[in-house]
Amino acid sequence: MDEFLQNLEKFARLNKIPVILDDTRDYLVELCKTLQPKRILEIGMAIGYSASNLLKASPNANITCLEASLPNIEMARKNFANQGLTERVNIIEGDCMLELPKLKGQKFDLIFLDGPKGKYLEMIDMILPLLDEKGVWVSDNVLFRGMVRGNQPIPFPRFETTVHVLRDFLDTLEQNKDLDTQVLHIGDGLSVVKFK
Ligand SMILES: C[S@@+](CC[C@H](N)C(=O)[O-])C[C@H]1O[C@@H](n2cnc3c(N)ncnc32)[C@H](O)[C@@H]1O
């Protein structure tokens, strides 16, 4: 990772901006090197850390990023500009639940979902039509601090809804016979979905 991204990661950790963990970044970078995507979609861009990593590992790609937080968007724009990436990024401001349906008709080779965890289940039907037949869809935090797998009681009431949504999200993906779904113990848990 270059110096700019090292500093951006430090800034994010220092300011408690929840960007991808190091092993998640390494997995995504390797995936990009193999897949060589041209059209990437990211849901939950924050300040552009993961998007920058994806772009730098995919020299032929452009990325569409959905993000709701205006302060994050402002920082992301500066970060992309400082890396010479602006031309390759299309930022869509707003709630992904409203913005995703507007992308209907577009196809992406790589989709990275890192937005609101409580909405993952609802987003399945919005995201699958956007995935190219040979594309890969990766979602972050699907094992959510180890609370998702198994039916053990959830130790923190404030996470109950999220954990139930993530359990239903993984069950729905795994039960869909048209999909090949893997759940990887990388970072906070990644699901990796392809069409069979
Ligand atoms: C975990 S952070 C993304 C981190 C980023 N992918 C990275 O690793 O550099 C999640 C982001 O999703 C955004 N977000 C949350 N709910 C959203 C929504 N409904 N629509 C769009 N963005 C949302 C938050 O503002 C936050 O910036």
Task: Give the structure's gist in a few sentences.
With 196 residues, the chain is α/β, with parallel strands linked by helices. It is 39% helix and 22% strand. It has a seven-stranded mixed sheet with strand order 3-2-1-4-5-7-6, sandwiched between helices.
Say what the CATH topology is: Rossmann fold
Biggest sheet, spatial arrangement of strands: 3-2-1-4-5-7-6
What is the end-to-end distance? 33 Å
From the structure provided, what is the oligomeric state, counting identical versus distinct chains?
single chain
* Domain count: 1
Extract low-pLDDT stretches: none
**Which distinct ligands sit in these coordinates?**
S-adenosylmethionine
Number of strands: 7
Taking the sheet with the most strands, its summary is: 7 strands, mixed
How helical, in percent, are the residues?
Answer: 25-40%
Q: How big a fraction of the residues is strand?
A: 15-25%
Query: How many helices does DSSP assign?
Result: 7
> What's the level 1 CATH class?
Alpha Beta
Element pattern in H and E: HHEHEHEHEHEHEE
What structural category do the secondary elements indicate?
alpha/beta
User: Which second-level CATH architecture applies?
Assistant: 3-Layer(aba) Sandwich
In one word, what is the shape? globular
Q: What name goes with the CATH superfamily?
A: Vaccinia Virus protein VP39
Radius of gyration: 16 Å
Mean residue pLDDT: 97
